[in-house]
Amino acid sequence: MGLLDFLFGKPQRYDAHSSLPALAESRLPSVGPNVLNLRVGDVVGYDGVDYVIRNRHVYNSHGFKWYSYHLVDVVSGRKFWLDAEDDDELIVAICEPVQLDLNGRIPPTLHHNREAFYEDEHGFANVLIESEASGPKHSSVEYWDFYNEDDSRFLSVERWGGETEASIGRYIQPFELTLYGSGASHA
User: Fold this and answer.
1) 8 A C-beta contact, residue 92 and residue 171
2) In this predicted model, what pLDDT tens digit does every residue of 126-142 receive, in sequence order?
């Protein structure tokens, strides 16, 4: 690989079965963290505060992946989840746990603080769970996604075995985050 290839990547190659150019398999190596490859121990700056990633969940449902990072401010103790997925565009959200009475069947409409949320998606995913406290584990989860009237906020419900958890979230722009590596590889 020459210096120009290293700096600018390899040129596009063309797929003989398609009229559109296909991207070359190898591009610039990953230089540092991005919101889709963060690891436990990395630091994320948000809203003037630096948070340490204590847990990382990698969800996989029929080949589609999304990521959830448990962030903790070691000074104040504030905790929340940072969710990220690449679904034709990068989608990033901040989520915080909420208490909802969710025994038994999950209804198609949920209410939180007098606001209605409507079911948009329901499914199952395999989850790789990484934590500071233990080695990697695999689990499965049943999930529901609900959105408010203007799609600006959402409720997520997850059922892990017999335990049901809910969180409320809102979307943020990726540029609102500052990502710092922990020294671990981000390839």
Assistant:
1) yes
2) 999 999 988 899 999 99
